[in-house]
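seq as requested:
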Amino acid sequence: LVRQIVGPLVRRVVAWLDEGQALARGERIGMMKFGSRLDVYLPRDRVEVVCRRGDRTTAGVTPIARLRKDL
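struct tokens:
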């Protein structure tokens, strides 16, 4: 689950998917404009988070989580 939140300056995000649409690994979901934010909600018991709050990420390149191997 992700939530795109507009920033205080431009107040615009661009979403390329419809609500509820499934994603493929590495698929881009939209574009964040100047200061906008993306919140990502992951099932804590199924993934290992590999980035931290404030990390810079690149769409389709930077992994943010991995499926846990012990499942």
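The chain is about 0% helix and 30% strand.
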